[in-house]
Fold this protein.
Amino acid sequence: MNKKIVVIGGSAAGPKAAARARRMDEFAEITLLQKSPDLSMASCGYPYYIGGFFDDRNMLLSTPTGVVRDPKFYWNAKGIVAKVNTEATKINRDKKTVEFKDLQSGETGTIEYDKLIIASGARPKLPPIEGIDLDGITTLQSMQDADYLRKIRDEKKIKKAVVIGGGLIGIETTEALNLAGIEITVIELLPQLLAFLDYELAKLVENYVKTKANVITGNGVAKFIGENGKLTAVKLQNGTEIPCELAVVAIGVLPNTMLAKDAGLKIGEAGGIFVDEYMQTSDQDIYAVGDCTEIKNTITGHNVLAPYGDLANLEGRVAGENAILGNKVKFPGTIQTGICKVFDYHVGATGLSECWAAKAGKEVITVVNASPDKPGFMQGKLLVTKLVVEKETCKILGAQCVGPGDVSKQIAIWATAIKGNLKVEDMVNADLPYAPPFSLAIDHSIATAHIMQNKIRGLFKGISVREVKEKIDKKEDIFLLDTRGADEFEAMRLGAGETQIPVGMLRKRLNELPEDKNKEIITYCKISLRGYEAAVLLQAHGYKNVKLMEGGLSAWYYPREK
Amino acid sequence: MNKKIVVIGGSAAGPKAAARARRMDEFAEITLLQKSPDLSMASCGYPYYIGGFFDDRNMLLSTPTGVVRDPKFYWNAKGIVAKVNTEATKINRDKKTVEFKDLQSGETGTIEYDKLIIASGARPKLPPIEGIDLDGITTLQSMQDADYLRKIRDEKKIKKAVVIGGGLIGIETTEALNLAGIEITVIELLPQLLAFLDYELAKLVENYVKTKANVITGNGVAKFIGENGKLTAVKLQNGTEIPCELAVVAIGVLPNTMLAKDAGLKIGEAGGIFVDEYMQTSDQDIYAVGDCTEIKNTITGHNVLAPYGDLANLEGRVAGENAILGNKVKFPGTIQTGICKVFDYHVGATGLSECWAAKAGKEVITVVNASPDKPGFMQGKLLVTKLVVEKETCKILGAQCVGPGDVSKQIAIWATAIKGNLKVEDMVNADLPYAPPFSLAIDHSIATAHIMQNKIRGLFKGISVREVKEKIDKKEDIFLLDTRGADEFEAMRLGAGETQIPVGMLRKRLNELPEDKNKEIITYCKISLRGYEAAVLLQAHGYKNVKLMEGGLSAWYYPREK
């Protein structure tokens, strides 16, 4: 008898699981239940549809050759029965059936399974505050949300909007709505945008986003204010009122675990459906994949919610195969790699940030490297990378990278390095593709490893821009040494009482340095390469308390004199 | 007493070694002898200067902040004595001195060393054929060569040129001269361009280059023809004469080992100066770095010449440190990663090609994956990757990638995977940065690993476009199945007697397949994803000899009917 496979959920993980199951067994009876009217939506593409990067809505729903992935396509091309507008309402584990309801006709039905794959996804968090039901408040989770916001773009009526939540979706939505000609205010409850970044990198992103939108951090929405049922303003927790006609709530998502919970399946420590490495739930006939599950962070060993489109697909592939063949293939887990674009700026991270590493109880060493992705003559653009390595082993734990340069390649390199359990010394002499259109002779990632190696070996002592700012604010007795040229100093500078001596003059002008060789000297330049040379030089000349401001002025996110 | 360090060579590896030595010892006496008038030239940037990507020659010679790296800069910023126009003429190992000659004044001198670092580089190979001394024949190796070719661009007098040699430099020069408005013919002795690629990928590149230049493979230059001392044509080995006013010879480089050989230093199996993992020669007081050396290919264990700018810098850094501190740091060797751009097409490789693997005696499995780098709605561009893995272990040995898409990231991923000794199964569930502006939900590299995994597990049998073409030419009794839609078939097709059945109709039209279930059926589509689905489907329906044409029509480099 043919195997019966039922898949609940038709966005990303579900269709992938169904398709993989089909390829493993041409004769299985595979049924997909999808609550929404659409199937296999490229939901990560919504912001780009709203922002007008393309106009054909069907591109979000099509194969690369332009065939819309509707039930007819699924039946013809994949031999999969896809029921849309169909909500799975109950799983009967004893009878191995799923009850469902047609949301248009109201009809109900029951379907049998040999193996069930749950891909019920996640839903947006909504703040339980006054006015949340006003017209003009939306999330960006469904195709219908995308349609709503795209219509707003096309109608050009709305002038002001707030985006609530400064995470990936919030930031992408900010770009999309700005491109629609709408004035945006981003509101984030935490002290920084993009919580997967450490504070100092998040602040660099924030400074950039502020050139395109208003950004308010450390403040939340207390109330939505409306007239005649329509949103007119949001009131913040500090009392500020921001007039707006549109609010997009993007404060994260929650896994849809209700069906699983009702069926008595185990829910994990992070709140997602618990699965093992085969993507199998606590019931051996039921798998779960995608945003409704929690998976292991392979660095910390702890389970996490990782609602990423790429992982959903990979998990679906694993479950689809295991549902047919028995548990053959494993999904190892995640290192929580992510990336986003905001206008001409790119932001990515993989593995642990310093903050996450601290929470995981790991002692780490970090460095910040600010330098271009390519030579100046090929219009190289700045990248700022923060690398996090385990103190004891020098194993790479994580990297964050922001800037207008090629962040995607940098994060891909570090993600693969983490996969390979590489240490700093492995990356110091990595053999990466070099030609001027693509990188510097020493790729930014390798240069980052060099700086880390130098720091580990004690060739310099680093200090973060934040610590330097605190010392300045506290009027500590420090000697700030800007090692750039006079022209550069004239064009841009901290203005915090620093002394400017170009590194090329330093040997001749050592007499301008403090007499007290124990005095704290902090060196820097634009990116802190010359600052590093100066620090090494001063140490060799007997200065005992020299620190390099990591990343130099390119990492300085506070206001400057110039 | 201060340590005396002498460095011979001032292009890439030499200056890096000198600078690193300085940072390790502020008080060492460091002298750099440079035969050319310029120092620290970004020689990989020459093609882009010639091609007019930028106009300021000094950008090739400057720090990122625009300071020209001349002897004054080296003295002020680094405390390094850099003697330009100064040729090292002899190494006296017994006295530990280097003799040198000022090429402008003719004066000679001798300098003592405690540690010597040889970075004497490489020189272009020149074919020993008639007419090689005619005006209008050049290489592209030195700043002077770059000046010569840039002048040709600016003067706009020359109409036709030949580029002799279809390697990296030849290809980059082709682009540069084409951008100068010159009609180019590329002549390559081997049957293909870019010998680091396997034949089928090289042919895809060749087809692209042919849209911009004439390409002749499998033919060499027999003679340069001139009038009044000026080049007027090249005559090929098959008798063809190609009129031209300029010939750029780019048939490779030879390591400059004369000085080292004369001093009795060991020369290695590949013809470069022999060094150990500390970059130390057979004399413990002499190191050698950059293009004059040979280094270990870490996959094969054999020494190779690897004249790459990035490795030169990394080797210099290692030698500079070891010369000061004793042998502290190691250089592991190379996996011969390379990349080049030719107009809007990118070509990269890392590790072993199938051809190199065969020479190294390794049994491998390969797959070709043709698919875009990003979603269609984000203007994704095609990438064609060939992945090579060791048959016994499934360890990744090499990858080649060509196409208009983001090749650089792909090769960086595979290079890092090789560094980490990763296997196919590690890459199958890699956690790479995904957002639509940067990749598909399943990154091209991961999709490539999926195809490889499917092949290893026997889910499909692959066949290369070359083998299919041979079968067609031999009129073998095969059934060619194009699984694309009718519109696609109308727009482009092989025209080799194939049957077109869209994969979505295949289950209903199985009766159109051969009755003999043992007949050889070859399936394909544009990229062979639908071709794969068809192959799996047919196998499930009892067809016993189904093969998938890997890479589909995107990998087909022969002429087509349409």
